[in-house]
Amino acid sequence: MMAWFFLVVAGFGEIGFVLFTKLSNGYKVHLYTILSFVSGLFSLFFLSLALKTLSIGTGYAIWTGIGAAGSVVLGMVLFNESREWKRLCFIGMIIFSVIGLRWLAAS
Question: How many domains does the chain have?
Answer without folding.
Answer: 1
